[in-house]
User: What shape does this take?
Amino acid sequence: MRVSEHPLSRLPWFLRPFFWLQRRRWGQVLVPALTWARLPRAYLSLLAFQSAFERRDSPLAPALRSLLQVRIAQLVQCSFCIDLNAALLAERSRSMDKAQALDRWRDDALFSERERIALAYAEAMTTGAVDDSLAARVRGEFGETAMVELTGLIAFQNMSARFNAALDLPSQGFCRLPSPPR
Assistant: This one.
């Protein structure tokens, strides 16, 4: 880690329930959340933004969201994001198969055409190379509103993964999944 761990005892009172919920869900406090909590307003905004993508009525299936988050984390080389999101993907898809095959998504029969289009878009956004043809395929598959949500989710995961990777925030043992070569 490139910053020292923020002590839980120094959290503002209004953030403590969020960390209680993390312990209940994950069995431990999430290091990136504790790091963000140094900036309470930013952390609250981050939580609100994340919850907008994790809502029940999202046009993006939970497993698809996790699939994209793992792939982006692999590309950005965020070990924490790979760890947590691969665990979520396994939980949501009831299998580790897609998480383990993610580096060969273009050719593996495990992935649907919808997933391939979303993964292509996520990779293009992450590398900064979205072209009109790909955007048209995404719009055709998802529709404009879901495309906007997909774009927001991908941008959010890029921000989160880049934050964690820059600060070298560690994985926390949720899912043992190797990072594939880029």
